[in-house]
Specification:
The chain has 16 helices and no strands. The chain has one domain: Hypothetical protein af1432. The protein is mainly α. The chain is globular. Helix content is 61%, strand content 0%. Keywords: Hydrolase. This is Deoxyguanosinetriphosphate triphosphohydrolase. GO terms for molecular function: triphosphoric monoester hydrolase activity.
């Protein structure tokens, strides 16, 4: 028996009946031999970590753009926090941690420069709109490895596609592991964005909704602790009573929703960062327009996409893969006059 088979055997004794056993995976789009050491989900996790698009997350904005402090979250540190929260919840419930980690590490890989500000620009420009979760799938299946893609398991791609939102208008992951990541994403970003906003002196604990902090606590660590434990215990209760789904209790879920709404009203879409959002959108808009008018200036790979799938898609793929720094560099090279001495 090889090592992978031993791990798969161990999974059957540690993962609950509703969890996703690696041996039961629906497989990949392209058949390939199984690894001797790693299960399919372990392979997927490693492929994502070693991808170029994952590395670029370190220079993509979470909320705060080009801050001087090293302590503000980036899209990469957000991803790592989501992965850690999700693994804790998954272990508490008895789910497949490798599948959870793979989904969590890949869930935001399709984000554009300047976070949701850049996403809003592409959504307005592109005839069919733009959603970062769908773009994550495109990056992982059609862009990575010079168009070959990473050939990830169906369960990983499903979890990534369905990680956004919590309302019924958004799809729900087919696995409990994917549902765990969906909740962990919200738990992570609401709380760490509050933490960053307090660090930036834009918020204080006293400004947060009193009803929410009464339920969840008045500091970062306490809130995450309560949310993680509530998700574990409530999901276990769901499963024990025949409800096959991940969720928070109504009281805790409402409190998280209140904090999330507060952040949208005051930080994400509020007046505080309005000017910075406009600047970011101005940069992305003008870089997009330049390459739309001058597609020959793009790298060969993206020119090939233009030929195969059209100008909008080719330019969007190029822009969406950029880090904030790279997008700013291109903007400066294209539009900012250079000093000339005669």
């Amino acid at each position: 028996m090889n090592i992978r088979s031993k791990i798969e055997t161990n999974e059957s004794s540690t993962i609950i009946q509703y969890g996703a056993l690696s041996i039961n995976s629906k497989g990949r789009e392209k058949m390939q031999e199984k690894d001797d050491l790693r299960t399919c989900y372990m392979v997927d996790r490693d492929r994502i970590i070693h991808s170029k698009s994952f590395r670029r997350l370190k220079h993509k904005t979470q909320v705060y753009i080009k801050t001087s402090s090293d302590h503000y979250r980036t899209r990469l540190t957000h991803t790592l926090e989501v992965a850690q929260i999700a693994r804790t919840i998954g272990r508490g419930i008895g789910l497949n941690e490798d599948l959870i980690e793979a989904i969590a590490l890949g869930h935001d890989i399709g984000h554009v420069p300047f976070a949701h500000n850049g996403e809003a620009v592409l959504n307005d420009i592109l005839p069919k709109g733009f959603r970062h979760n769908e773009n994550s799938i495109r990056v992982l299946t059609k862009i990575e490895k010079a168009g070959v893609g990473l050939n990830l398991s169906i369960e990983v791609l499903d979890g990534i596609l369905n990680h956004s939102g919590l309302s019924e208008k958004f799809g729900e992951a087919a696995t409990l592991e994917g549902q765990v990541v969906r909740y962990s994403d919200k738990i992570a970003y609401v709380n760490h964005d509050i933490d960053d906003s307090i660090r930036a002196h834009l918020l204080t604990e006293e400004m947060l909704p009193k009803g929410a902090t009464k339920v969840l606590g008045t500091n970062h660590g306490k809130r995450i602790d309560i949310l993680v434990k509530d998700c574990i215990y409530n999901t276990i209760n769901n499963l024990d009573t025949g409800v096959i789904g991940v969720s928070l209790t109504q009281e805790v879920g409402n409190a998280l929703g209140d904090l999330r709404n507060f952040m949208f009203e005051n930080i994400y879409k509020g007046e505080i960062l309005k000017e910075e959002r406009k600047k970011a959108q101005f940069v992305v808009t003008n870089v997009f327009e330049y390459y739309y008018k001058n597609p020959s200036a793009m790298p060969e790979f993206y020119k090939g996409i233009v030929e195969d799938e059209g100008l909008y898609i080719g330019v969007a793929d190029y822009i969406s893969g950029m880090s904030d720094d790279y997008c700013l560099m291109l903007f400066n090279n294209i539009y900012v006059p250079k000093l000339s001495i005669y």
